[in-house]
Amino acid sequence: MVMVKIWGSLTSATDGQAEVEIEARTLKELLDGLSEKYPAIRPQLERGVSVSIDGRIYNDSWFQPINPDSEVVLLRRIVGG
Amino acid sequence: MSQIHVTTKINGDTTEYLCDPEETLLDVLRDRLGLTGAKEGCGTGDCGACSVTVDGRLVCSCLMLGAEAEGREIDTIEGMADGEKLHPLQQKFLEHAALQCGICTPGILVAAKALLEKNPSPTEEETRYWLAGNLCRCTGYDKIIRAVMDAAEEMRRAS
Amino acid sequence: MPLDDHKAGDARQFKVVGTRPLRPDGIDKVTGRARFGADMNAPGMLIGRILRSPHAHARIRGIDTTKAEALPGVKAVVTRADFDAADDSVADIVDNCMAGEKALYDGHAVAAVAATSAAVARKALKLIAVDYEILPHVTDVDEAMKPGAPILHEGLSNETVPDGVSQNVSHRVEFGHGDVDAGFAKADRVLERSFKTAATHQGYIEPHACLATMGADGIADLWVCTQGHYMVRNTCAAILGIDQGKLRVTASEIGGGFGGKTTVFLEPVALALSRKANRPVKMVMTREEVLRATGPTASTSIDVKIGMNKDGKITAASAELRYQGGAYQGSPVDMGAMTAFAPYDLENVKTVGWDVVTNRPKQAAYRAPGAPMAAFAVESVVDELAKGFGLDPLDVRLKNAAREGTKSSYGPTFPAIGLEATLKAAKEHPHWTAPLGPNQGRGVACGFWFNFGGDTCVSLNITPDGTVTLTEGNPDIGGSRASMSMMAAEELGIPYDQVRTVIADTGSLGQNEVTDGSRVTFAVGLATIKAARNAKKVLCERAAMVWGIDPEAVVWEDGCARPAGENAGKFPPMSLKEVAAIAANTGGPIAGHFEVNAEGAGVSFATHMVDTEVDPETGAVKVVRYTVFQDAGKAVHPAYVEGQFQGGAAQGIGWALNEEYIYGKDGRLQNPGFLDYRIPVASDLPMIDTVILEIPNPGHPYGVRGVGETSIVPPLAAIANSVSAAAGVRMTDLPMSPPKVLAAIQKG
Q: Pick from C117, C126, C105, C120: which is nearest to C53 by CA?
């Protein structure tokens, strides 16, 4: 089980919770788990998110491992220039 | 509208071409003579990327007609090195990392060469004002100014 | 992502990394030989030109191209009807490249022609008749949010936008933690300020240009100046409805990008024209087209509220950011909201962002997209509060600085970061205590950027004579080829000049993320190092074969294969050249490659310090001294790191003092040229001093952090703070052009 932090405006999709618990060992399992538990979050996930795992940002790496005690933060998709 | 026949000298070589009356010297250099070192950054004489010298005078080639080159001596970036021997300005630009993307570099080198021919010991301020007509978006000009002044010193020592 | 065998932070003795060799493309660039986007021609090529809307907002009732098609010399004409194969994922991009139902901004492309000369093409454009129904327009971000504002796209707002808010708002986002109201209640002083920043353009000196050749079978070649030729390939393929593998894109040298060339404008149009005419088509934008119809950054309207105690501690901070990204959704407001308070360790913080559309060109990324404007607002308020309490602005920032272990304002906890190091370096620098002259003032500000990694492929190939070709897929916009060669040379233990880095076309490697996000030295560097290590394994195996020993018993050191220890046997070392010479005898050509989605980039913090002199009679602001302090993790080629610091600072100075998009009441751009869109020139700036800090990034074998973007984030606020100190006026509206500064001085 992993604790995931949800940004302020997105908590409307997670019943107002800023932190939710998801069964996941990889990034993909995390996103799939969020999608299943909180269907209202799906449009945002489809639009794209970045995920910070222990302070490092991941955009697409499905099989990036997540430890049970990892800090996981859902972020808006980050784009550079 | 018929084309105009022009005879001129470019980088020391006698050159002939035909051009449309409204064609700029920049268009002629790039599209008819294969000398693509001069660049079009704005087409209105504001960026200096098209700089050449005409009878020793620094000019934006986008502001001059191809037909006006008749009987003149044009010097472009392609004529700056002497065979495989780079001009001191070119060498110093490399040593000081005075270029990042390099698009403004030909124009700045031509302009800097014209400066040093007129004033072999420019101050930093004089160098900056002389080059104010050459836009660079990558470097912030710092390393460019250092390179020009370093080249000036080397050229003074060599002469 | 496995880390280096050395722990980042170990004092590894580099032989090549950290030195300043000459760049490999240097001679080409100082002699004019280097070929940029517009420097390529093809036999039989046509010239393409675009017809653009003169209206800021208009319904296109019909386009009649018959007269243009009949003009002798015209070989193809295209309109939106020629792009019906485009898939939904690129809907906004297609619409921006070629208007469909509506023209959404002054300069929006509505049709294009390919003809035997530029003169014929220009004539043909005049013969195209477009039936416009002019609609009311809106160009200001706050105006566009008001009820009753002209609407660009019905139904644009998504589920995050509350009812009753204008349909010009695509989404709303909110970040933060803690309780800002409680935090403000505790503060000795709460300051609220509102700010506006004008839209600016990346200002690259090279206009967009490409040469397209496409056959009826869908097989195509494209030469283009771009920050990402793989992106161009994939986007054009999606727009034209062809397989990605059919389109081979070659990146020319690029004359500046800064984010503005991370998307497409001309390219799908050139390909469509070429397909229709069955001839190569060259398209080059004029400067006017670049400013009117490529991707400037957002103009913004920002409210900031910060509570601070008299000892300098910030008790709470909030910001509301409204950004307009042109006629389509996607302004960088999310990133502005995430980076606004990033340099601070805050218990209570809240940022809200609104993404708004207006009748302006579709924005594109510009160096740390969204961050400079947010930093301008926040750093100005921090400065004003600090000054109000008589506190040293650097000390206030040190007191509240984010560190390793700080929960950032956008969520994640920071690993090792360099902000404090930059602040301390700033305090100790002679600039901080240098005397100031009359009408002069000093300002400081901090900035932050995430940086990233992304898809990367590198192939390192060893030639029979033992030299090395490094094939990578990222256009070199700032000298990165030199850094790649340096890292390969470092790993292989060979001289720098034995490595040639080549940026290959899209047919040579699978996929590469665009050159952006300050990613190249980090990600391509990491892949280069891994590819070199793979090559070393093969080199060792070959030596092992020759020596008749186990490959595990061979190591690569100082450019040679050597037996691992006494027990492995006594064999003289084999240099790279010696192993390469027997490649064919031992199995075949030797290479190493590495493909990765390089995530885990390290963030980069900076502090900027600037002295300005304000002329009280004209309001003109002159920058008299500037110093950049930024964390680079590990500077592979220090001269190019300095170059990034200086270039970003110069763009920030232009943004702060002169640059702005000026729209008339008719919604048309008034200043689409370099005379009136005034970027800094050599006489505007002093030397820009740089101090490189190195707090290694654990995610890169050498500790490299991206540096290209952070340096544009602090200058806007640093200059505003400096002007405040010099002239006693707090400027909240960018640019701080002379008439505005003068008006503020006279009012005060």
A: C105
Measure A8 CA to nearest chain C CA, in Å: 5
State the average pLDDT for chain B.
Answer: 97
Question: How big is chain A by its Cα radius of gyration, in Å?
Answer: 12
Write the pLDDT tens digit of every residue in C187-246: 999 999 999 999 999 999 999 999 999 998 889 999 999 999 999 999 999 999 999 999
Q: What was the pLDDT predicted at A81? A: 67
- Does chain B reach chain A with at least 3 CB pairs under 8 Å? no
3-state secondary structure labels for all residues of C328-380: CCCCCHHHHHHHCCCCECCCCEEEEEEEECCCCCCCCCCCCCCHHHHHHHHHH
Q: Which of C335, C362, C455, C697 to mutate to test the interface with A (most CBs of A within 10 A)?
A: C335
Q: How far is C159 from chain A (nearest CA, A)?
A: 9
Chains C and A touch (3+ CB pairs under 8 A): yes
- CA-based nearest residue in chain B for residue C686: B142
Residue whose structure tokens are 């400065």 = C383
Alpha helices in C548-613 (DSSP H): 576-581
Phi and psi for C232 in degrees, rounded to 5?
Answer: -60, -45
User: What CATH number does the domain located at A2-76 have?
Assistant: 3.10.20.30
Contact C510, C442 (CB under 8 A): no
Q: Which residues pair with C256 in a beta bridge?
A: none
Do the Cβ atoms of C32 and B106 come within 8 Å?
A: yes
CB C674 to CB B36 under 8 A?
no
- For residue B137, pLDDT over 50 is answered with yes
**A7·C334 Cβ contact <8 A:** no
pLDDT recorded at residue B134: 98
Neighbours of C510 (CB within 10 A): 11
User: pLDDT tens-digit profile of B111-131?
Assistant: 999 999 999 999 999 999 999
Q: What domains, with CATH codes, occur in chain C?
A: 26-34+453-598 (3.30.365.10), 426-442+605-748 (3.30.365.10)
Q: Are B140 and C688 within 8 A, CB to CB?
A: yes
What ipTM goes with this model? 0.98
Three-class SS string for C597-608?
Answer: EECCCCCEEEEE
- Integer Cα distance of B9 and C242 in angstroms: 49
Residue C646 in contact with partner chain B when CB distance is under 8 A: yes
Banded model confidence at residue A47, pLDDT cuts 50, 70, 90: confident
Residues of chain C with pLDDT under 70: 1-11, 600
What pLDDT is stored for residue A80 in this prediction? Answer: 67
Q: What average pLDDT does the segment A74-78 reach?
A: 84
How many Cβ contacts (< 8 angstroms) between chains B and C?
Answer: 178
Q: Which two tokens stand for residue C425?
A: 């370096």
pLDDT (tens digit per residue) in B58-95 = 999 999 999 999 999 999 999 999 999 999 999 999 99
Pick from B47, B127, B140: CB nearest C650: B140
Q: What is the pLDDT of residue C11?
A: 56
Contacts of C650 in chain B (CB under 8 A): 137, 139-141
Give dist(CA C344, CA C402) in Å, integer.
Answer: 5
Give the start-end residues of each E strand in C183-237: 189-197, 209-214, 220-224
> Of B19, B47, B96, B137, which to mutate for an interface test with C (greatest number of C Cβ within 10 Å)?
B137
- C-alpha C627, offset from chain centre: 22
Q: What are the residue boundaries of the structural domains of chain A, listed by start?
A: 2-76
C258 in B contact zone (CB under 8 Å): yes
Q: Which residue among A57, A73, A79 sits closest to C365, beta carbon to beta carbon? A: A79
User: Cβ A81–C367 below 8 Å, yes or no?
Assistant: yes
Q: Do C685 and B139 touch (CB under 8 A)?
A: no
Interface residue A19 vs chain C (CB under 8 A): no
